[in-house]
Structures are given as structure tokens and as C-alpha cells.
Amino acid sequence: MNSEILANDIQQFINDNLNTDIHKILLSKSRFSEVSSRELVEQIESKLKAKFKLPTWFGADNIYYPNKLNLSQTSSEVTANYKASIIDGASIVDITGGFGVDSFAFSKKMNHVFHVERNKDLSKIAQYNFLQLNAKNIECLSVDGLAFLRDSSNIYDWVYSDPSRRDKDNKKVYYLSDCEPNVVSNMGLLLSKSSNLLIKTGPLLDIKSGLKELSNVKEIHIIAVNNDVKEVLWLIQKNYKNEPLIKTINYKAKTLQEFQFHLSEEQIVDTQYSKPLNYIYEPNAAILKSGAFKTIAKDYNLFKIQSNSHLYTSKELISFPGRIFKIENIYEYSKKSFKNSGISKANITTRNFPDSVVKIRKKLGIKEGGNSYLFCTTDLDKNLLIISCLQIFSDHN
């Protein structure tokens, strides 16, 4: 951490050049002897990234930013605040503190937050920024998170971990037991220090795979922002033996879409099927990630178009946690059938369909964009269909 970056004239330069071509700055000699051009660019890039991801940080004066890789790996302010909303008590240990976004959110809910980060430089940055943000109930410790717990004689209300999903060679890993720290093999230690654990994993971790690796899972929260799954949260309670509740959350610009279910429900639900009727419904990304393909149809009294399509239909318009479309026409998947549609530009989505979007565009001569939406899918009789629609509600509203 180069504290010279915090000088008034350097902070002013960073703010004045947020919209400047950073390559010009990088290739030019720094006007500041204490701060290099690369360090200036690093601050500019990270501050720009924080504008939408971390608006509180962006709006505060004299924030010190880490490199953009560290910033890209941290939670967004939206998801961090959600995590804080599902915990309670007086104390929490964040054993993978990082830049401190989650710890800061926890500090608004808990009396005492322990931000534990083994990277000394990142720990210093987080500690400095907490003071700038007036978060006075966060204690920063630059040690290994698991070692801190082993050496501590205290019991905490919560322990939180966001294991790194990259190995020592910086390659992505996909099993929780391959992440660092390994919360699977250290579950005994974690539960000896707190009866409540909150573990964050990336959106690629399969839910059933995670359930095989973890025990005592009380709830699983799948968090999406504008229909993009950002993280999966595993709420673990000591000695919990019942079936976990799966909650899906999709943050939209103006509303919040929520849906919850149990996997056992999904296994026993009888699904009703139909050919496309008047409306098409596409569940948001959090629901699709959860695997609630039959439960969502039952709870909203919808028909599935085909067992593997995960598209739903109804005669009457209903409110739904996802995108909603009014069906205009239905065509066979052939250039001849589609020729008279008059559609030359459209947004294409495939569901249970053999051809890629690129191949479909080439075959039908359709450009990207416009107001028309085409769902390419397979019906109950295994016919390939093109459903032409107009969108009436969006995940982004």
C-alpha cells in the first residue's frame, strides 16, 4: 500500500481522469515522483469498476483501491448487504476478509466484526478504508483465517468464508473441497467456533454436488442481479438434520423476485404440459440455477412446453419471476416456413434445441437485435419450433 496515493493532488488527478484513455497515462511518465503511472492507472481502473459495484466506496473520499483482480473477486455491495440481512447476533469472523465489502456490510448488523485477511497489503487497505467509511466496529487481523480460529478461545455467533475458486496456479476449480480455504475438510474446526456458518461459492458450483460435500445445510440462497447469478450462499447450522430450504433471489432495477422450494418437492411434483398457448414465461437465472423446473410450474399454475425446455405457457397473463412474452406466431424450423414471417432482425433464445444461435441466424437469415424475440425449442411431439414473441415484462424492470 503506497500511502502517497492518498495525497490531495493525486486523488484529484485520479478523479479528473476517470474518463481518460488509461493507455495514455500508462505510457506517459507520471507527474508524481512518489506514485508510478501504473499505480495511477490501477486506482483509476478500480475506482471506475466500483462506481456501480460498490457505490458507497465510489462516493466516499480518499478510498484506496486494490488492483482490479482483487476488486473483481469481491462481493458487490448489493450481494454483501443481502448476506448481512440473513444473519443476526453480536459477532462474526470473516476468515477470508479480502477488500472488506462483506465485512463492512456485516458491521452494520453486528456489534463486532473480525476481518481476517492473510495478505498484509490487502488487510492494510481494508483497515484504512473502514476508517474512511466510519466503520469502527471492525477489527482487522493479517493472519490466516483457519489459524486465527484454531488459536482463538472464543465462540462466535457466525463464521463467514468466501473460499477462493482458484488453485495455486491461478486455474479455476469447481469443487468446494478444491477451494482455499478448504471448508469441507475443516468443517469440524469451523463448527467448534460457531454454530452458524455462512459460506459463499461461485455460480458454477452445482447445488447437488455442494450438498454431497457439505453437511448440516439449513438453507441455500442463490443470488442473481439483473438475471445474472452472482453467488450461492450456504447457511450451515450445527446439528441441523432436516432438508435444506432453497431460496432464489433476483435483484431487478425496481423490484425483487423471490422463490423458494425444497428439492423433495421438485422430485414428486406432477407437471402439466401443453403446446404453446398465448404467453411464454422464462424463469429468471436464479430459479434456473436452482433446478426448480417443475415446482415453479406448479406454484404458478403454468404448463411446461416440454420436459427439458424449461419454458412455460398459459392462456391468461400472470405475474411471474422472470421474462414474459406474448406469442405472435409459431413456425416450423425451416427456412421455407419462416420465410413469410417478415422478421429480418430478432433476439434468439434456444431451449432444448439442437442448433446454436449462430447456426439459426445463418439458416434463417436473421440479424441480431430489434423488438422481436424468437424462442427455438422442441415441443411434446419432438418437433422443432420457432415461437415468435414480443416481450412484455423483463427481469431488468
Automatic annotation (TrEMBL):
Organism listed in the record: Maribacter caenipelagi
Which superkingdom does the taxonomy of this entry point to? Bacteria
* CDD domains for this protein: AdoMet_MTases (cd02440)
- Under which name does UniProt file this protein? Uncharacterized protein
What SUPFAM superfamilies does the record point to? S-adenosyl-L-methionine-dependent methyltransferases (SSF53335)
InterPro entries cross-referenced by the UniProt entry: PG_1098_Fer, SAM-dependent_MTases_sf, Thump-like
PG-1098 ferredoxin-like domain span: 279-321
Instruction: Specify the THUMP-like domain's residue ranges.
Output: 322-387
Enumerate the Pfam families for this protein: PG_1098_Fer, Thump_like
